[in-house]
Design a protein that fits this description.
Structural class: mainly alpha
Radius of gyration: 18 Å
Number of strands: 0
Largest sheet: none
Mean pLDDT: 92
Helix content: over 70%
Order of helices and strands: HHHHHHH
Number of domains: 2
Distance between the termini: 41 Å
Number of helices: 7
Strand content: under 5%
Low-confidence stretches: none
Shape: globular
């Protein structure tokens, strides 16, 4: 199995655990306070990983403004996603919120085809169709 697949599976497991733990943790907090606490922990771990174990100081010196611009935009969209995810999770069922949130893969696929020129395959389209169908079933009244 390729290394990236192993990383993706590990990510999937932790992402699945994350929402349930967050729902427990936000019991007596509003969604924004809960997210601020969580994000502080995430920030600390990411900084430690990048600067202590991954030689980030050297890489940052060689980066471009274009890289920083796109990473900043990604940070903004991540923040907005997390803010609304936590608000939805505070009010709704984690199983529904997480499933709807994961339908974001459809947006990712469309953008990867259009902007990154990644190949469109029947396998990817079928998978995206199943994800989209699942989301529609969940939100159908």
């Amino acid at each position: 199995m390729e290394k990236w697949i192993i990383y993706a599976i590990i990510s999937m497991v932790f992402a699945g655990i994350t929402s349930v733990l967050a729902k427990f943790g936000m019991k007596n907090l509003n969604s924004d306070t809960a997210l601020a606490i969580r994000t502080s922990i995430v920030f600390s771990i990411i900084i430690a990983n990048a600067f202590l174990f991954r030689n980030a100081f050297t890489e940052i010196q060689g980066t471009t403004l274009k890289n920083i611009f796109f990473l900043a935009l990604s940070g903004i969209t991540t923040s907005l996603s997390w803010i609304f995810y936590y608000r939805a999770m505070k009010e709704g069922q984690v199983s529904y919120v997480a499933s709807i949130d994961k339908a974001s893969i459809v947006i990712t696929l469309i953008l990867s085809f259009v902007l990154l020129k990644e190949p469109v395959t029947a396998k990817v389209l079928l998978g995206a169709g199943f994800i989209l169908t699942g989301m529609v079933i969940l939100i159908w009244k």
